[in-house]
Give the backbone structure.
Amino acid sequence: MEAGAVFGGVAAPPRRLLVTELRALATWRPPSPDPRSLPRGDGGPVLVLPAFLTADAFTAPLRRFLDACGHRSHGWRLGVNWGPTPALLAGLASRLRRLSDEAGGVPVALVGVSLGGLLARHLAHAAGPLLVRHVATLGSPLRLPTASPLAPIVRPLLPRYARDVDLARLAAPPPVPATVIWTRDDGIIAPCSCVTDDDAGDRFEVGGAHMVIARNPAALAILARRLAA
């Protein structure tokens, strides 16, 4: 997709930011916040959903941080995130129910990175507060369609995606407390797609690149505080 291209009325991030994204992914390894300086979690389950084309290995550092903050985090165990296929959505719903049952029936917090956040919002709307207690998104496209340099990779996958994913509902407030973390410097997702008109009280802006938002110290601190609230 060329710089400035428009998809669904949204302009794609400038191409120069894609270079910044790749450089940050390769070189930016900041220390995580000190868990002792943050509110302590209550040991409740947290299900972490990875970004597009990544798997649980990608979210392992994030999950270690959440564990150090007093949460009990879990990977999704569904392999690579290719997007909302029927099989993936069914597996995700099953994983959520199993984690809740294993924790004694308590609802689960959902944390999704990029496309993982979109899936987390879908799951929160579908499952409701009996199974979900909080949904947090990091650099996730909540308003679709959006524009992205990844569009040429996504388009061939669209016929495989589930038909029952309601794009309008993803942008609507979920039926549980929510946290929206986004960056104006995003070179992968159009930043305006990562926020909605209804999330002002739950929206938190950080600096830095999209591809490293899951290890962004400011984002991690916000996430820890919100999950422990």
Q: What stands out?
A: The longest helix spans residues 86-102. Residues 143 and 168 are 8 Å apart (CA to CA).
